[in-house]
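Supplementary Note 2. Why include the ligand at all?

Several targets in our set were suspected to adopt different conformations when bound, so apo predictions alone were not considered sufficient. For every target with a known small-molecule partner we therefore ran a joint prediction. The input for heme C is given below.
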Amino acid sequence: MNRVQNFKLILWTIIGVGAAVAAARFIFGLGATTNLSDAVPWGLWIGFDVMSGVALAGGGFVITATVYIFKLDKYHGIVRPAVLTALLGYVAVAVGLLFDLGLPWNIWHMIIFWNPHSPLFEVGWCVMLYLTVLLLEFFPVPAAEFGWLSTIRNFLIKLRMPLVIAGIALSTLHQSSLGSLFLVMPFNVHPLWYSPIMPIMFFVSAIGLGLMMVSFESRFTSYLYRKEAETELLAKLGNAAKWIFLLYLLMRFGDLFLRGQIGHIFAGGWQVKMFWVEIAISAAIPLILLSIKRVRTTGAWQWVISIMAITGIVLNRINVGGMVHLNRGDTFYLPAWTEITITATVVAGAALVFLFMVERFNVWEVRPVDPKADPSTLPEFDYASQASLGRPLIAARTKYSLAFVFAAAFGFMLLSNQSLSSEGVIAASVEEARGGDTLWVDGDLDGYGVSFQHQMHIDKNGNETSCVQCHHMNLPLDENTGCYACHRDMYIPTDAFGHDWHSSPHGGNLSCFKCHQEDQHKNAETAQQCDHCHDNLYPAGATIKVDNYHAPGYVDALHELCIGCHVKLIEETGSPDIARCANCHNDQRDVVEAVDGTKENILIGNVALP
Ligand code: HEC
Ligand code: HEC
Ligand code: HEC
Ligand code: HEC
Ligand code: HEC
Ligand code: HEC
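The joint prediction is reproduced in token form.
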């Protein structure tokens, strides 16, 4: 057996297991095959397949720009593999998305139902358009083999310049719009990653990743097909990549510094460790290694550097795409084995197509041959199985098919050991999204909040009857409405009634006289009571009485409620600790923020603090 066949056998095995899992995914749904939940809706598939698929494709636009726009002809030999990688990267994105979407068959909706305000809309369109451009850019390569396609091929070659430019524009837009996507969730992404210039950092790191990916592929195919590696060219690529990594590092740290978040890099917590690992392998160590000429020109080091940088930047995408969203509350997420399998399958599928393309068409300057599959060699006898496997090409295909079928059977076996009913999973994830036992109370979604043991408070304060002690007012058609719905501003009172809204045609559309008598003064006393039209606005037994509709600021409302009751507990427990700031603000960062007074001009309700 040779390297190519062994490698392909592994890929087919992965795809076999993946096929079984894919069937389960589409029959039983996401709940049964992933560890995703309403609290963690984006996991490995988005983080790896989509985010990294796009980034891996960065080489496509970098190399086409270098060769066709900047006319650096020495890189001409790697244009085709770079475009092919980009194409496959984007196909992987599309396939990954199909797995991740709850209703994948609606994926075309975006083409017809436009929502131009959504960053996802831009992302979606860029993916579709760039995928098309890449297809057209790459098409001449396979078309060269078929005479009857030559007219189309010549036309596309003439069209090359506009295509290249469109490709660069689209992928520039798109690499960065993936970053913009996360701009809308400042409270979700950890401050070490969240930055207003995230789109630009995504773009820069995608260039670095693209270069490293080209380098890795070139080394890997040379190894597989035992052909001579393009060490010198790759050293030149490495030299260019060095500057990109330097720029990227300067941006990351400069940005942290300018935003005043630099202190976080020395704070504790797993996110910080993750940050350092990511920085080290995605840019810092590759930068150092690439700066040394002897290292950059050595084949073995080229392996190490490209693998390291690829892992690092992919880790960055996974972090931004999901991992570091888990820094709030107690949620945690580890991808299920099924998720990992699908991801591996997408990668394996892309790798197989890549190998097929390089063997079949002139992707590299010289077309590599799988020595064993060369149809001109003689039939072979397999000593291990005591059977003739036929001609080498047929033998190879037999082996791949067997690997696929056995692996799929194995996949079904693994799946049958697992409960595929999604009801329990869904119930649990709804529970978790509603906050489960512990809520993260954070009115302004700035990340500084208070962990509040909701269930424990319900138990301590008398179970079902306790709700109204805190949930003293509801919105129409709701129960136990979240406090933020009325206490809408952090510090200043807001209107919870909406007088003008009720009579406006765009709102309640009620005539004045639904609430005010025709021959009386219009004021609070004479107006119709709210419960004339709404039930359950003021739940029975609520202890906080509402007599005007100006809901105090969020912090005041919560401090008054929480501290008010805790002050009463001092007598019971005999210790004032329960009403101290640190009892609630027990996260290191919050105590520092709240007590050291960076936000000192904050009112602490009307409560006298001990
Ligand atoms: C000690 C006070 C307290 C008690 C008692 C209490 N809650 Fe809550 N509840 C809260 C707070 C605080 C929040 C979250 C803060 C916010 O919504 O801004 C909340 C949130 C909720 C939410 C999520 C609302 C949303 O839209 O996000 C639900 C549902 C809920 N509570 C139901 C209940 C039920 C049912 C009970 C009684 C069995 C109960 N709560 C008792 C304080 C309390
Ligand atoms: C449907 C709207 C609404 C919701 C939901 C709501 N509140 Fe209020 N709340 C008000 C209004 C309006 C007032 C003003 C009452 C007054 O002064 O007449 C108020 C007053 C208060 C007060 C008294 C503050 C003061 O200074 O008088 C506290 C404490 C309070 N809310 C806590 C909460 C908490 C905690 C929650 C969530 C568990 C909550 N509220 C949910 C509308 C709401
Ligand atoms: C949904 C019931 C409702 C409708 C409809 C309604 N009002 Fe009112 N109105 C009230 C209530 C309740 C108050 C008491 C205000 C408060 O405390 O916020 C009020 C107060 C007023 C006041 C006294 C304001 C003050 O500062 O004391 C005037 C004037 C008034 N309404 C005029 C109108 C007019 C004019 C319309 C029709 C365009 C109208 N209202 C429609 C319920 C209503
Ligand atoms: C004459 C009937 C009537 C009276 C009286 C009335 N409302 Fe409403 N209210 C409505 C209607 C109709 C809607 C819109 C439909 C719905 O959401 O139920 C509405 C909606 C609301 C909403 C939701 C607004 C939104 O943005 O969705 C709130 C909050 C509300 N009312 C509060 C009050 C309060 C507080 C009072 C008492 C001061 C009151 N309403 C009195 C008819 C009334
Ligand atoms: C109705 C009374 C009441 C209200 C309102 C209340 N608490 Fe408590 N809280 C308690 C009681 C009772 C305990 C349990 C004390 C004990 O036995 O340890 C407690 C304990 C706690 C603890 C300590 C838990 C532990 O295990 O150390 C925290 C933190 C806390 N509350 C936060 C809050 C926050 C935040 C709010 C407002 C959203 C709040 N509480 C509102 C009654 C209340
Ligand atoms: C019984 C619990 C409790 C105690 C005791 C308490 N707080 Fe709070 N505090 C809260 C809750 C709940 C919030 C709302 C959290 C949020 O929305 O971010 C809050 C919010 C705040 C905020 C605003 C945070 C932000 O996100 O902007 C500050 C500042 C603050 N508290 C300071 C203090 C100080 C100072 C003390 C002691 C004097 C104190 N708190 C005591 C529960 C408490």
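The two ends are 79 Å apart (CA to CA). The chain has a mean pLDDT of 82. Comparable summaries for the other entries are listed in the accompanying table.
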